[in-house]
Write a structure and sequence with these properties.
Number of helices of chain C: 6
Number of strands of chain A: 2
Shape of chain C: flat
Distance between the termini of chain C: 75 Å
Oligomer: heterotrimer
Largest sheet of chain A: 2 strands, antiparallel
Shape of chain A: globular
Chains: A mainly alpha, B mainly alpha, C mainly alpha
Helix content of chain C: over 70%
């Protein structure tokens, strides 16, 4: 084994990565078995382990920063191969064979490149801060040590997900992440809401993972490889995989892979689990449901960017943009401080997904990083507020906390500025890059669909930017300004140091992390992110690559396009500043100066407001699928609606026409968006009903069914073909 | 010594091939004799004798495993090849665990001699069934398995549910085997032989001359009805939930694992010899024949899809664990049928592999039901609430078996499903893989409900869980195996490849 | 494609037609003078006693099953006896005799088993079975009720009554 050297990568680095991966697992194993017997229930052990991980991750990252050949360490020459060229040991050779099924070999490899490096830092950093914060927040919980054990399991899975170099290993960690998320959401499983939330999260994710798995299966059956590196070379060499893979099938594979991201990153229509996941402890929300796990979907889409055809990318962009705008609207009407942040997270994830969909991969991943910092800060800040409020979360009970919790206020205010896109803060830079990318896509549309569809992402994302700044400032004003509105708010107090120090660290990062990737036209900063975390590319001969997405093949822009790209940045920046400013101004009008009344506006827009309060009716139906009671309830409601609206409507048609329209509007939402899952639910009921009816317990019926079944089979045989 | 005498006469090598069956017979006769002796009232004695019989049989099976790859006995009626040995060893393991469960289950106490006598007869039936290469032997084996199953189902003859289930089982089984016999007679009429290895080429010849595809199809479907009843494929599954619930739980375990596996064994051998073997239908390149075989495979695929879907959907609504596992076993029959639908080498291997996974995880699941019902005196899910924290390790092991039943990594169930999926996708039935994938997602819900009841819900009743170290050890051992084979399945795949009928020919 | 089966269909139709036509012609030709004697079910010239769907005593089935076992034994022994000389000639006489001895003794063991379990007694066995069944059912019921109402106090009472009754026997 060679020694550590700053300029070269080798086996020693592999060992470091393995240490980073295994330390959290170690703390999980120790804490789950003997955690209660350790002094302080072992929180110091978990925190120490994570701090070591953070240190090592920073070391690796620093090495990536100074590494001379860093630009080449993108996907195409993934660290393993690139390092090989540099003359050091080939890390891949250290891999034992993990799976060997009749000619199908999977090696548990590690892929380390710039993206991995920065993701490692983000995950370990936030996880460490959350560990510290939790020491205060979870103090006195009956299952204190188990909590830290679960955190360890999660961190282990997340690091594994980032480090894996093939889809199967990724899938395994992907599921492990889901499991640990399940455990942490349901941590307070005595609460029925938490118990059902964790099941909901898990099952919703399974729906996405099912698609993900089939996507992997399609790629594997076509190319016979699972490693990213091998997959990309196979794709470059022959995208049709010897004629077995058509453009349509590749699109399908892309969309199915994306389904996994839809589930994990809470994109519409599978976003419903994330708000409920807020039943978990708040530090968990910060770590898992804001900064890291939910970003795994974005990471996946970014990693596999070249696999997506233009059609698939268009789907991705549209779903991302729609999620961004719809979730942002929901943020306006929520009263629970964590719910606001949850919808904000969904909306921001929509941004990242849309960014990758429009081809601005770097911007999307950059936003992933900056968002991780400021959203973790917001969540931990809200955790601090909730802690101070003795576990009350309704913003209508808060107010005036600015003076009682000055540090929390200051930190959260910084994060709010960042997420709203106030210039020079990290959020402004990343969001601006995304908007520029979307605008560029509008100017130079791709080939995946009609050109007007390519205009949508920019428009929607721009609107979402305005709404974002509105609801974020609403949160700040309701929580920290005005009069105190309840006893709890009167007695609120600042949190202990172990909680405020992580806030301060994150606040610094929320301001400064943008410096890592300032876009070039501003002329300052390091450009590191922009230069070194580029979109993956393929070497493709034109005839072969006809149906691959041109973003990855056409690296040379025409003069017009170059001009468009240049101007898109300026335009996007001006637009976003205007829109964000408007949002902040409106929020001030409503909630600070009280010039406008939110209640009145809500009354005027009653149907809209009702739809929003019901979260577009997503939950009513999705939960209905998963829980029998609500299924029956939903069906009843539908039948009641039928009676009340159709039957009565015929009687006094004119008077009710407006209501019918409103109801149809609601129903349209339900039916269209609900689509597949709802259908499955309905089919389930009907089938279950029939299956149970047929199982009468009478042998006569059974024999009759035997006969009918047999005749049916025979008939089928003679009638087919 | 006995073997040495037998080996001297070439004619008697037939009997040597039949030695495991003979040991079983001797074992069960000893059970009868012991039962007649006065003073032998300990309920463990017959169990012990059965285990000894099984051990002797297993020893011979093990020797045969490393002997000749294929022995034909009794003029080709009976064949001992790796495939048959696979199923015999499989059954031996399953029945050993079932006997241990029977000892552990508190509700079995009277007439134990009869119980083991009948159980061992059923085992004998399975041994004959999986080795038979002749339609009459198939029938005898099937009945030798079925009739003891009827008796065992009605073992609690004073309980209404048990007797009722038994009667239903008898009637349903008779109708099914009658249908199957009709199919056999049609096959005989079409080919003029009852030997399975001759039927294939004879049918192929008939096809290439004039062909009588309708009658062949009808005969095939009738035979499928008979086997379909044994493996409980839709629409021949109606007996199953009632019988599983009515029978003593160890017997339910036996039916779910050994009996079902035997059904698959004979079905696979039948499909192979009549349709897949060299010279049989599937190897003809005639366009009509290819279309016919495709249609057949499609039909089995449809049956598989409907079976798994119906099983899973019906399981969603069950409140009783045994009934839930009953429907789950229907669903698993559906998954396994995917491999049959492929009618090919990879499908067969996948089925064998999945059967092993299914054996381990189903034994684990039923073991847990026995473990808990000994203390709770009930099999309702709601009565199991909170039991998980009373015995966390065993229940955790049980949850691992459930995870494997769903088919999540890192378990043997996952690898098995992977192989099945791969088989159908390779043979172009992507839709079937999609249906199966959806089904797995559905099944997560109800398996999970059990796990949730165990760990996440508060128990309403106050009771103490009776410790049973043997049962705990079995369940934990099984769950360890589930995970072990989920990670290191090379050895198992070697075994399965050895048992592959297609490979044996090449 | 299904033309081959047309003659089967025609045969089937002709068969039904033949019976139908005969019945119609018969009903047209014969005189119709019903009386109660004619309408009653025929039972060997006797007056019918009760409905014809009576439950048969299960003991008949037991005897029938036992009979079948020995019936099968005869069916096996005849061909064996026939070919025994040939085996003897081939020098395998002792072995073949041993084999059939095994076969017969297995059946004999079965007979002994039935005998010991009381299945060959006609009257006595039913009485014994009835009593055994009654006791067993009571014990089962008591066990079930005890399990159902483990917490309620009444269970202990019931147990006591059962114990008392068992004591009587």
């Amino acid at each position: 084994m060679d020694s550590f050297s700053l300029s070269q990568f080798g086996a020693f680095d592999l060992a470091l990565m393995l240490v980073i991966l295994l330390l959290p697992l170690l703390s999980f194993v120790i804490l789950i078995f003997v955690g209660r017997k350790l002094p302080r229930q072992g929180d110091w052990l978990a925190t120490m382990n994570l701090s070591i991980c953070l240190g090592l991750a920073l070391l690796l990252f620093a090495k990536m920063l100074v590494h001379e050949e860093a630009p080449e360490l993108a996907f195409r020459s993934a660290a393993v191969a690139g390092v090989d060229a540099a003359g050091n040991g080939v890390i891949e050779d250290y891999n034992p064979i993990w799976v060997d099924v009749i000619g199908f070999v999977v090696k548990p490899g590690i892929l380390f490149d710039n993206l991995t490096a920065i993701m490692l830092v983000v995950v370990t950093l936030i996880s460490t801060l959350v560990h510290f914060f939790s020491i205060g927040y979870m103090h006195g919980d009956p299952r204190y040590s188990r909590y830290f054990a679960y955190l360890g399991l999660f961190t282990f899975s997340m690091i594994g997900l980032i480090l894996s170099d093939n889809l199967l290993l990724l899938y395994v960690f992907w599921e492990l992440v889901g499991v640990s998320s399940f455990l942490l959401i349901g941590f307070w499983f005595e609460k029925p809401s938490a118990a059902s939330a964790c099941v909901k999260a898990f099952i919703t994710n399974r729906v996405g993972d099912f698609g993900f798995f089939i996507g992997i299966a399609i790629l594997f059956t076509s190319f016979g490889v699972l490693g990213y590196h091998e997959l990309f070379s196979a794709l470059s060499a022959d995208p049709t995989a010897g004629g077995t893979l058509s453009a349509g099938l590749l699109t399908a594979a892309g969309v199915l892979l994306f389904m996994g991201a839809v589930g994990k990153s809470a994109q519409m229509p599978l976003h419903i689990w994330l708000p409920d996941a807020m039943e978990g402890p708040t530090p968990v929300s910060a770590l898992i449901h804001a900064a890291t796990m939910v970003a795994a979907g974005v990471y996946l889409v970014g990693r596999l960017f070249v696999v997506f055809t233009p059609e698939a990318l268009l789907v991705i962009a549209l779903i991302g943009a729609l999620t961004a705008i719809f979730a942002a609207f929901l943020g306006i009407v929520m009263h629970d401080i964590k719910k606001v942040l949850a919808y904000s997270t969904i909306s921001q994830l929509g941004y990242m997904i849309a960014a990758i969909g429009v081809g601005a991969v770097t911007a999307g991943l950059f936003h992933l990083m900056t968002h991780a910092f400021f959203k973790a800060l917001l969540f931990l800040g809200s955790g601090s507020v909730i802690y101070g409020m003795h576990h009350h979360q309704d913003m209508r009970e808060m107010g005036g906390l600015r003076k009682k919790m000055p540090i929390t206020f200051a930190c959260m205010f910084i994060a709010t500025l960042a997420i709203s896109g106030v210039p020079l803060l990290s959020g402004f830079l990343s969001k601006d890059a995304i908007l520029a990318g979307a605008l560029f896509q509008w100017m130079v549309p791709g080939s995946g669909g009609p050109a007007w569809l390519y205009a949508l992402p920019f428009v929607l994302l721009l609107m979402a930017a305005g709404v974002t700044s509105f609801y974020m400032f609403r949160l700040i004003f309701l929580t920290f300004f005005g009069e105190t509105k309840s006893e709890h708010a009167d007695h609120a107090h600042e949190s202990p140091k172990v909680m405020t120090v992580p806030l301060i660290v994150l606040a610094v990062l929320a301001i400064g992390s943008g410096g890592l990737g300032l876009t070039s036209h501003l002329g300052i900063g390091t450009h590191w992110f922009n230069d070194h975390v580029a979109a993956p590319t393929l070497d493709v001969n034109e005839p072969n690559g006809a149906f691959l997405n041109t973003r990855s093949t056409e690296l040379v822009l025409t003069e017009d396009e170059e001009h468009a790209e240049h101007s898109s940045h300026t335009i996007a920046m001006i637009c976003s500043l205007l829109v964000a400013g408007t949002g902040i101004f409106l929020a001030c009008c409503f909630y600070l100066w009280r010039k406008l009344s939110a209640a009145k506006v809500a009354a005027v827009l009653a149907p809209v407001h009702r739809t929003l309060e019901n979260k577009y009716y997503f939950d009513n139906l999705f939960v209905g699928v998963l829980s029998k009671k609500v299924i029956v309830g939903g069906l009843n409601r539908f039948l009641w609606w039928f009676d009340a609206t159709i039957i009565d409507g015929i009687v006094n048609l004119t008077a009710r026409i407006t209501r019918v329209l409103a109801a149809i509007q609601g129903l349209f939402d339900k039916i269209v968006v609900d689509g597949l899952v709802n259908l499955v639910g309905l089919v389930t009921i009907v089938w279950g009903f029939f299956a149970q009816r047929l199982q009468t317990g009478r042998i006569q019926t059974y024999l009759m069914m035997f006969l009918i079944g047999f005749v049916g089979l025979a008939a089928a045989f003679f009638l087919i073909g | 010594m006995f073997q040495a005498i037998l080996a001297t006469s070439p004619m008697l090598s037939d009997i040597q091939a039949f030695l495991p069956e003979i040991y079983l017979t001797v074992g069960l006769l000893l059970v009868v004799i012991i039962d007649l002796l006065p003073g032998m009232t300990d309920r463990r004695i017959p169990a012990l004798l059965s285990l000894v019989g099984l051990a002797f049989a297993a020893r011979v099976l093990w020797q045969q495993m490393s002997g000749e790859p294929r022995i034909e006995a009794f003029g080709g009626l009976f064949v001992v090849d790796r495939f048959a040995l696979f199923f015999k060893l499989f059954t031996t393991i399953a029945v050993t665990v079932v006997i241990l469960y029977s000892l552990a289950w508190k509700r079995l106490e009277s007439r134990m001699g009869e119980y083991y006598l009948v159980l061992m007869s059923a085992v004998l039936g399975i041994f004959v069934l999986v080795s038979s290469q002749h339609l009459l032997m198939v029938y005898i084996g099937l009945e030798l398995l079925s009739i003891p199953s009827y008796i065992l189902t009605g073992y609690f003859k004073n309980q209404r549910k048990s007797s009722e289930a038994s009667l239903k089982y008898v009637i349903y089984g008779s109708v099914a085997s009658g249908t199957m016999l009709y199919g056999f007679s049609l096959l005989y009429g079409l080919t003029g032989t009852l030997r399975l290895d001759e039927i294939g080429p004879a049918l192929a010849q008939a096809f290439s001359e004039s062909g009588n595809p309708e009658a062949t199809a009808l005969a095939f479907l009738m035979v499928l009805a008979g086997f379909g009843y044994k493996i409980a494929a839709v629409p021949f599954h109606y007996w199953l939930p009632d019988v599983y619930q009515g029978a003593p739980i160890p017997i339910t375990t036996f039916l779910a694992v050994a009996s079902k596996a035997a059904g698959f064994g004979v079905l696979l051998r039948y499909m192979y010899l009549v349709y897949g073997a060299p010279g049989a239908l599937a190897t003809l390149s005639d366009v009509d024949v290819v279309a016919w075989v495709d249609k057949l495979s499609l039909l089995i695929g449809i049956v598989a899809a409907v079976t798994m879907t119906l099983g899973n959907l019906a399981a969603l609504r069950q409140k009783n664990v045994v009934r839930l596992l009953a429907y789950s076993s229907i669903a698993h029959a559906g998954y396994l049928l995917m491999g049959v639908a492929v009618i090919g080498s990879s499908g067969l291997e996948a089925v064998l592999f999945y059967l092993v996974a299914y054996l381990i995880m189903t034994l684990g699941a039923f073991g847990m039901v026995i473990y808990l019902s000994n203390s709770v005196k009930s099999e309702e899910i709601e009565d199991f609430r909170g039991a998980g924290w009373k015995a966390p390790i065993v229940c955790g092991a049980f949850v691992m078996c459930l995870v494997s039943l769903v088919g999540l990594p890192p378990t043997a169930g996952f690898v098995g499903k992977w192989m099945l999926f791969r088989g159908v996708i390779e043979s172009g039935m992507l839709w079937l893989a999609v249906v199966a994938g959806l089904n797995s997602a559905i099944s997560l819900y109800y398996y999970f409900r059990v796990a949730k009841a165990l760990f996440l819900e508060k128990s309403e009743k106050e009771y103490t869980l009776k410790r049973s170290p043997v049962m705990a050890a079995i369940i934990i051992g099984l769950s360890v195996l589930v995970v072990y084979y989920g990670l290191r399945f090379g050895g198992l795949i070697d075994l399965v490849q050895q048992a592959n009928l297609f490979a044996a020919v090449q | 494609m299904y033309f081959d089966y047309t003659n089967v269909l025609i045969f089937f139709l002709v068969g039904i037609g033949f019976v139908g036509v005969n019945m119609v012609v018969g009903s047209l030709l014969r005189p119709s003078k019903p009386n109660p004697e004619k309408n009653s079910a025929y039972e060997c010239g006797e007056d019918p006693i009760g409905p014809n769907r009576v439950q048969f005593d299960i003991r008949f089935y037991t005897v029938a099953l036992i009979f079948i076992i020995f019936d099968v034994e005869i069916a096996f022994l005849f061909p064996w006896a026939n070919s025994f000389q040939e085996f003897k000639a081939a020098g395998l006489g002792g072995l073949v005799f041993f084999e059939v001895l095994v076969f017969v003794s297995i059946l004999f063991l079965g007979l002994v088993y039935l005998w010991a379990k009381g299945d060959l007694d006609w009257v006595k066995s039913t009485e014994a079975q009835r009593r055994a069944a009654l006791a067993h059912r009571r014990a089962e019921e008591a066990k079930e009720t005890a399990a159902d109402s483990a917490k309620s106090e009444s269970a202990t009472e019931l147990d006591l009554t059962v114990a008392a009754e068992a004591g009587h026997h």
